[in-house]
Structures are given as C-alpha cells and as structure tokens.
Write a structure and sequence with these properties.
The protein is 27% helix and 23% strand. It is an alpha/beta fold. The strands form 7 sheets. The chain has an 8-stranded parallel beta barrel. Strands 3-9-8-5-6 form a 5-stranded mixed sheet, with no helix packed on it. A hairpin with a 3-residue loop joins strand 5 and strand 6. It starts with 7 loop residues before the first strand and ends in a 12-residue tail after the last helix.
Length: 562
C-alpha cells in the first residue's frame, strides 16, 4: 500500500555479429548472429521515503552485470532486489550487462500518498490558539518498560470522507474539491497510515482504536457487522500497517444501543442506562457474544490487546429502570452480577485471544474476579482545579492536585479509607497494573469544569465573554481554544504519575483522543472541534508527551494563518 503497483521496464539490445565481405559459395558458413539484451524495472515510479521498492533486471547472452548510480555492485545476469528508499528526490538505478546499459528512475517523496490521493489537510491555526500559559519543559521521560499508548479519535475516517464529499457535491464547498482526487478507500488508508506513522514519530508504541456497530434485534441482540463504524477490512488494514511500522494495536468496543436499519434504540438511554436485572442480563449476554467473536477475529489479525468491557455507555446501578431508585440490596445484586459476568467474559476472551486484556473503559471497581484476571486497568483523572484557580494555574499546582488524587484513589481502591468496602475487593496489589488515561482538552475551562463534547454541537449556556450566561445552539463555538492549558495539565499530571509509588504503573494513554487528520478547525462542521478537543495532534502537549515517551525534545512550532 505504500507505492503504486506498476512496473516500468527498459530494454536494450546490443548486436554482436560477424563482419566481412561476401565470399564465395564455398566459404565456411558465418556464425549465427548473437546479441546481448538487458532490461530493468521498478515496482513503482514513486515511493514514500523510508519505504521500499523492488528493482528487477534481466539479461541475455551477457557475461557480467554491474549496478551503478543509486545502487552498486556486481549483479547476476538476472534477479531482483528490495531496496529501501532513504534519499528524497529522483533516484536513478542503472544496470550494465557487458556493454549494454539500461536504467529506471524512482521519485522518492516525503509526502505520503495513496494512488492520486494526497493529504488535503492543513494544521494552520490562529496565533490565539497557542494560549495564555507558559509552555513547560518536560521534567523527565519514562523508561522503555512503560506502555506508551494513544487512542484514536472515535470517528471513522470513511465517515469524515463522506462528510467532505457531501460538502463538495451538495453544498458547493470548493475547499473540499480534493475528493475528486481521492477515492474513499484511498483517503481512508492514507489518513490511517499517516496517523500511525505520526504517532510512532512521537514515541507511541500502542495505538488504541474504538469501534461500534448497530444491533439486530430479533430476540437475541447480535451486531450487524455491515454497520460497523470501522469495517473489519479497515481494522485488518490498521493491524497490518501497525505491524509494518513495528507498533501494537489495542481494540476497544463501544456499546452503541441503536438498532440496525431502524430509528430506535434497544432500550431507553439519555447518557446513562437505567437497568434492572432482566435488562442487565441481556446487555451482558449481548456483549459477551460479540466480544468472543471479536477476540477470535482480532487473534487472526495479530492484534496485541483488547478491552473486555465497553466504552461510551454508562450503567446506573442505583437508578431503577424507571428512575424510581433501587434499594441498596438491589443495587449490590446488580453490581455483583455485572462483575460475575465480566469475569466470565474475560475468561472467554482469554481462551480465544493470546494478547493482553484490559478493563476500565466502562464502569469498574476493585473486584477480584476482574481486577486479578486482566493485564491492565485504565485509570482516569477528574477535574483538578477550581474555577477561581484557572487564571493562575501552574504545572506545580496541577501536579500537587494530581498527586493528592492518586493517593486518595489508591486508598479507596484498596479499602484503606473510611468508605464501605466491596465484598470481593482484591488486596493483591502485585496483580494490578494501571494505565493512566490523559483526557485533558485544549481549552482553559477544562482545568476546572472538565470535558465537553468535541464531536458535535451541544446547546447550552455560552462560555466566552460575548455569550456568557446566554443560551446558544452550540456551546463549543463560544469556547476559546487554548493549547497551553492542555500542555500544563499534561506536564503536571505526567510528573505526578512518574513520582507516585502507590499503584503499579503499566503506562499512559488518551482514550478516544487523537484526531485522524491534521486539521485544527473550530467550525463544528465535518470534523467538528479538534481545536478544543482532547486530541494533542498538532498541539504543544504532543511535544511534551513525545519527550516523556522518547526522551527527545522537539520544539512546538505551529504554523499561523493570521
């Protein structure tokens, strides 16, 4: 997928014949005419730098062949070599067999491509996006045992392409005319490959992908695989590309409750699923059936890790199906059943999948049937500052709050505080390895009020001076991007994680965060709001994380459009 599948061939012939006059009919017969021929071809005429091309050559009647120009050495009379293209520009490959020389040219480019499709996006920003806080210098870096992960934004790339295509064809948006040069598959493969390559350049060794699909509701709930947001074919492409880059893939399922081909839901949902035992039994059975299928499929693709639970659907154990509230006994029975079934699901996945198994994307607490069985537990941070502290926020203050939260969370997790203790709490701390989730968004309000939707508009009260306290259709458009706020949060929290000695640290990640294109727009259209999102792509926090992941400093140097 890294170069065009065409062959370019040059053939040369050099005739070696007998010379002489016409002699009589009695003269000996002249020897038959022989010739030296040579040909050379390349598997592509254009290659992305660092990738390889295959040079193939052939000759006839030659005693020796020699390579020159962009390659060298004595060669056999025919053969092929796979060569890494490490120098940008026009590369000439010549083969000389006796006195016959032929050559082929390969253009090596630093801009990736897929067919005629090239990256159409720009990372240019207004200067104001950089923010008001001083960008900190990273204090330290993690050792090589640290899981250095990052989660893809939970937007399928084909969905993004379709949005731009509709914008061009139906809305007349000429800035999206690049869709004429890109098929949906070409664009999808290019964006996924560029994203994986960029993550690797910033030290990421594991990329997490988040997927969902819609359900067939014919008694038992089963996923309609044709409705998956990221198709099984695209998952296979991601897995194979990651393998080529030397990266690992972690797969996470999002429990979307929509019924396939119908405008209805499996059960009422308003951001929280209010459950009773019959509904919870059905949810867990549906999730188990699908995750066991995914485990077998992902094993065949060589995927390295899977989350056993789900993200994007929260359960309310205490609410009651009609929000009437459960008794404590009813609530505990639901929690007990959830953990029992989650433990069984983990065991089923383990029988089918040889990679790592994680939990923590959804509701989790310390239960030996789950916590003791998995290879990693996702752990997230809450809001760390108060509203009045935003203007004077510092890395040191954020580090202090993060450290205090880690201590309190450790005590709560292992029943070392005054809170009621879960009956199946595991005290074997050696079995529990934490993956710390970094969800910080790039706006100053995040420091105190927390996460806001970055994938679509939400109505509410405006956040900036012009709209403060007013009802607006899209609160995201009233928010001011501030990349430096995200940067100081990252540095403060990473320092606290690095210094804490309570939990066993497996690694760090940012779930559903990393944008799949370079754009940093703030228009809420096709790609919504990467400008204020938790994605660090193209922002100062990305360079901070790179240092923590690699020990290599790279200055943040944005390109401005004003």
């Amino acid at each position: 997928m890294f170069f065009l599948n065409r062959h370019f061939i040059l053939v040369a012939t050099f005739f070696l014949g007998a010379c002489g006059g016409g002699g009589s009919s009695g003269d000996p017969k002249a020897p038959p005419t022989s010739s030296v021929t040579a040909s050379i071809s390349a598997s592509a005429n254009k290659v992305f730098i660092g990738n390889s091309a295959v040079i193939t050559w052939d000759s006839r009647n030659a005693s020796a062949c020699t390579a020159s120009d962009s390659w060298s050495g004595d060669k056999s009379s025919s053969g092929s070599e796979t060569l890494a293209m490490t120098t940008e520009g026009e590369q000439l490959f010549t083969i000389t067999c006796d006195d016959v020389s032929v050559n082929v040219t390969i253009t090596v480019t630093s801009q990736d491509f897929e067919g005629s499709c090239m990256n159409p996006h720009s990372a240019e920003i207004p200067q104001s996006y950089v923010g008001e806080y001083e960008i900190p210098f990273p204090e330290n870096s993690f050792d090589q045992s640290h899981l250095r992960a990052m989660g893809f934004k939970d937007y399928g790339v084909r969905w993004i392409y379709q949005g731009y295509s509709d914008s061009y064809h139906f809305d007349g948006d000429q800035s999206a005319d690049w869709v004429l040069d890109c098929t949906q598959t070409e664009y999808t493969h290019l964006m996924l490959r560029e994203t994986l390559r960029r993550l690797k350049e910033h030290g990421v060794t594991t990329a997490s992908i988040y997927n969902f699909g819609y359900w067939n509701d014919d008694g038992a709930w089963k996923i309609d695989h044709s409705t998956k947001h990221i198709s099984d074919e695209d998952i296979a492409f991601i897995a194979s590309t990651a393998l080529e880059l030397g990266m690992d893939i972690h797969y996470v399922w999002q429990f979307n409750i929509r019924v396939a081909d119908e405008q209805r839901l499996l059960f009422p949902f308003d951001g929280m699923a209010r459950i009773d035992m019959p509904l919870l039994e059905k949810i867990m059975a549906a999730h188990e059936g699908h995750m066991l299928w995914e485990a077998e499929h992902l094993e065949s693709l060589g995927v390295n890790a899977i989350s056993a639970d789900w993200s994007a659907m929260w359960l309310c154990f205490s609410c009651g199906i009609d929000n009437q509230g459960h008794t404590q006994a009813e609530t505990d029975a639901l929690k007990e059943f959830y953990m029992q079934r989650m433990g069984e699901i983990i065991s089923g996945i383990r029988e089918r999948f040889s990679g790592k198994i994680y939990v923590g994307e959804g509701p989790q607490w310390n239960d030996e049937r789950v916590a003791d069985k998995v290879d990693g537990i996702l752990f997230s941070f809450p809001n760390l500052l108060n509203d009045e502290e935003i203007d004077t926020a510092t890395v040191d203050l954020i580090e202090q709050r993060a450290a205090a939260y880690l201590l309190n969370a450790y005590n709560a997790y292992y029943c070392l505080d005054s809170q009621p203790c879960w009956s199946r709490t595991s005290t074997d701390t050696t079995k529990h390895k934490m993956i710390f989730n970094l969800p910080a968004q790039s706006h100053a309000d995040y420091l105190s009020t927390g996460w806001v939707e970055d994938g679509f508009c939400v109505s509410g009260q405006g956040n900036d001076d012009d709209y403060l306290g007013s009802d607006v259709d899209c609160i995201q458009r009233t928010m001011q991007p501030d990349f430096s706020a995200q940067a100081i949060w990252y540095e403060g929290v990473l320092r606290a994680i690095n210094k804490q000695s309570y939990f066993n640290t497996l690694g760090t990640t940012s779930s559903t965060g990393y944008w799949l294109s370079d754009t940093l727009l703030h228009d809420g259209k096709v790609e919504a709001f990467p400008s204020i999102s938790q994605s660090i792509r193209g922002k100062s926090a990305e360079k901070i994380l790179k240092y923590w992941y690699t020990g290599e400093f790279e200055a943040y140097e944005p390109t401005f459009n004003d």
